[in-house]
Amino acid sequence: MVVIDDSPFQCAVWRHFLENRYQDRVAVETYTDPRQAVTKLAPDIHLMLLDWEMPYLDGRSVVAEAQRRGVNLKRIIITSAHPAEELHDEFDGVGCLAVIEKTEPEQQAAFLMILDSIMRR
Could you tell me the pTM of the whole model? Predict the structure, then answer.
């Protein structure tokens, strides 16, 4: 699993959460610099958690590069503190698996259902 978020704290939170929830079933790579992350993107990515707003490259640019590198867009979840409606307006036509508002409890519950479903595969 790949996490791309410019916040070192958020990357640490994702890593801790994912490794504790899924233990030996997940390997987590985190990147705080999206420019570095895009050089590692490949078609074999199982799941990518991608922050929308980052310096240098925003989430939309990273999605475009991921697609160019053969990553299945249905393996990408966009995360942001922006309202879900804004995320849907920005990303609905892109083809990503989901957009999740980080701070909304209902969105977090949906996110957990998506993750659990993916990890059962």
Answer: 0.90
